[in-house]
Amino acid sequence: MSPSSTPTADVLIVGGGYAGLAAASTLYRATHSTIVFDSGLFRDDKAPHVRLLPGWDGTESSKYRQAARAELENTGLCSFVNAQVTTIAQQQGQDYEWRVTGSDGQEYQGRKVVLATGTDEIYPDIPGYKDCWVTGIFPCMFQFGYEERGCASAGILVVDKLASVLPQVVKLAGDTRKFARQVVLYTNGDEKVTAQLQELTKEVDYLSIEARNIRRLRKGPKRAEVTVELEGGDERKEGFLVHQPWTQLRGTLPAQLGVETTPMGDIRVEHPFPATSVPGVYAAGDCASPFKNASMAIAAGVCAGNGVARELPASI
């Protein structure tokens, strides 16, 4: 395709993960054309297997994406561009209201936009954390933990985001308890958080609090095992750790569009069809939900496709 030509589609879908693929699948079923921009960057690349997706549980996420992409390409209504979208602009009054530029230098036009750009974790300032992420530090006890069931002890890092939602930490401890006989709450030297947790957990016999500063986390050789190095030189070995870090929206498109965001930093959308605050732009998946997993992303992508499809007949 020559650079002078401008490819067009009914819908431009930015993101080739679970949500973007589901939106494209829904839209082709409604006979609408899509261009899906796939950056090749996926939040779950560090996770070894797909979870909470019946029929695919335990499969590598890349295999799911490959299968879905092949299915969509065979419809004749969906094309893929292996590039990031770097800019987006509205062309009011035009049949194709949205124009984007890819990292390949090509411009593309569409009538509607679905953002499925995902998020990135903001790791806490604890040495070794990044090396243990997902392999030994789990963000969700519904996606992770089952394989580690029966371990003697597991820990929860009550830092950053979790330090601001202590009642949620107690619930998370209950989830963790299903896989470990004891649960340790690590407060990393925060005296205020330690005192509040002592009050909240005084009736919970399976919980203990470790208030010392964490010097380093070290991934163990066995399964999800992590060793916590503490101030003073002591070490504690945990079957796994639990933590939900802050996340940030991936890329600059939400800021370019000026979409509203939630206090947690996700794109604010309406429900059930996830329209953003900018007319004609929908958002689905991790970028627009606190529940960041495959099945929720797929459901949101389907809803986004439904919402967009119902807008298109009036604008074509």
Automatic annotation (TrEMBL):
SUPFAM superfamilies: FAD/NAD(P)-binding domain (SSF51905)
InterPro entries recorded: FAD/NAD-bd_sf (IPR036188), FAD/NAD-binding_dom (IPR023753), Ferredoxin-NADP_redctase_2 (IPR050097)
Pfam family, one: Pyr_redox_2
Domain FAD/NAD(P)-binding: 10-134, 188-301
Record key words, sorted: Flavoprotein, Oxidoreductase
Biological-process GO terms, alphabetical: cellular response to toxic substance
Family, per entry: Belongs to the class-II pyridine nucleotide-disulfide oxidoreductase family.
Protein name: FAD/NAD(P)-binding domain-containing protein
Species this chain originates from: Aspergillus viridinutans
